[in-house]
């Protein structure tokens, strides 16, 4: 087997336990991951072979959502839990539609932040792009830091992107209130784009496998939690839902862009186990 060279690790990185940002990077074919993450990923694939396709379908949804927003004229984005940069990053998709588009990335994982910094130093424009290391569970702090960068104009609509992230907030954490707090600080006309893992509506044969994956993640530094469709819908309370509303990730406007992984679930989009939605703040 080819040896993958280990990337240089930022000082505060936890290499004792696998981490969601780095495992996800491995699922997507990236190189910002360590042996401990790859071993975890390989075990997850053994348990549930479609897991990489599911991760890719989620990433595709992110791309289509950002393209939709950019086409509606949204030209600034706050991407929380942005992850390790890979193909189709938010600022790239937005810029392809609106050349002046702006984006602030936020992640609490030092590797994701370091890789985003490198990418932005190479390809970014200082007044239009920034990355912050921070925990999205502190909305006021994150919002102040994001606006302090000068990249975002808080008086104009912003696309708040929280894709593939909210399931890392525990069921006992005030996840809905956290998102509400962000939305309360955003101007009218802003949008909230999100997705969430669920077991609700997922067909029985693979529910057991999903339960095993869930167990495996409990031993990582980033356990995740399923939420039901009703629980996910609560994040959108008070927003105008954009068609097709809350639904499965592969079904969300596949015509808008990359949807190859999602197409592999055609006929059974619940196989993605990922619900998504886009809401507009009136
Ligand atoms: C599955 S990845 C999704 C990345 C990207 N949003 C996407 O859709 O491709 C989840 C990301 O959320 C980050 N994350 C998890 N909990 C977080 C928190 N409390 N604050 C900030 N980032 C967080 C992880 O470090 C990871 O990079």
Protein architecture, described:
The protein is 38% helix and 13% strand. By secondary structure, it is of the alpha/beta class. It has a single domain, classed as 3-Layer(aba) Sandwich (Rossmann fold), CATH 3.40.50.150. Strands 1, 2, 3, 4, 5, 6, 7 and 8 form an 8-stranded mixed sheet that branches. α5 links the parallel β2 (102-107) and β3 (129-133). The protein is globular. It starts with 19 loop residues before the first helix and ends with a strand. Keywords: Methyltransferase, Transferase. This is O-methyltransferase involved in polyketide biosynthesis. Pfam families: Methyltransf_19. It comes from Amycolatopsis sulphurea. One of its GO terms (molecular function) is methyltransferase activity.
* Structural class by secondary-structure content: alpha/beta
CATH superfamily label: Vaccinia Virus protein VP39
| Largest β-sheet summary | 8 strands, mixed
Task: Report the top-level CATH class.
Answer: Alpha Beta
H-E string: HHHEHEHEHEHEHHEEHE
Kindly report the CATH topology: Rossmann fold
Counted up, domains total: 1
Provide a quick synopsis of the model:
The protein is an alpha/beta fold and 282 residues long. Helix content is 38%, strand content 13%. Strands 1, 2, 3, 4, 5, 6, 7 and 8 form an 8-stranded mixed sheet that branches.
Tell me the layout of helices and strands.
Layout: H1 20-27, H2 35-47, H3 51-71, E1 76-80, H4 90-97, E2 102-107, H5 110-123, E3 129-133, H6 139-148, E4 159-162, H7 175-185, E5 191-197, H8 207-218, H9 229-234, E6 240-241, E7 247-248, H10 260-263, E8 274-280
Parallel strand pairs: 1-2, 1-4, 2-3, 4-5
Antiparallel strand pairs: 5-8, 6-8, 7-8
Helix pairs in contact: 1-2, 3-4
Bound molecules: S-adenosylmethionine.
S-adenosylmethionine binds at residues 20-21, 24, 58-59, 62, 81-83, 106-109, 112, 135-137, 163-165, 168.
């Amino acid at each position: 087997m080819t040896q993958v060279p280990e990337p240089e690790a930022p000082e505060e990185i936890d290499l004792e336990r696998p981490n969601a940002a780095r495992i996800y990077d491995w699922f997507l074919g990236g190189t910002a991951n360590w042996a401990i993450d790859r071993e975890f990923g390989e075990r997850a694939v053994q348990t549930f072979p479609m897991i990489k396709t599911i991760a890719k379908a989620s990433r595709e949804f992110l791309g289509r959502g950002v393209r939709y927003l950019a086409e509606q004229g949204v030209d600034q984005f706050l991407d929380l839990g942005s992850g390790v940069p890979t193909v189709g990053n938010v600022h790239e998709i937005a810029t392809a539609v609106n050349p002046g588009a702006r984006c602030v990335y936020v992640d609490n994982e030092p590797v994701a932040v370091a890789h985003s910094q490198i990418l932005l130093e190479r390809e970014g424009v200082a007044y239009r792009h920034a990355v912050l290391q921070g925990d999205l569970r502190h909305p006021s702090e994150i919002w102040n830091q994001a606006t302090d960068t000068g990249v975002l104009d808080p008086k104009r609509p912003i696309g708040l992107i929280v894709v593939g992230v909210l399931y890392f907030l525990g069921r006992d954490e005030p996840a809905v209130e956290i998102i509400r707090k962000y939305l309360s600080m955003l101007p009218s006309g802003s949008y909230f784009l999100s997705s969430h893992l669920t077991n609700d509506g997922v067909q029985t044969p693979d529910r057991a496998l999903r339960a095993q994956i869930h167990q495996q993640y409990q031993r990582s530094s980033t356990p995740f939690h399923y939420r039901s469709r009703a629980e996910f819908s609560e994040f959108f309370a008070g927003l105008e839902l954009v068609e097709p509303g809350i639904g499965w990730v592969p079904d969300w406007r596949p015509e808008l862009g990359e949807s190859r992984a999602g197409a592999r679930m055609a006929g059974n989009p619940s196989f993605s186990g990922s619900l998504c939605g886009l809401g507009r703040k009136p």
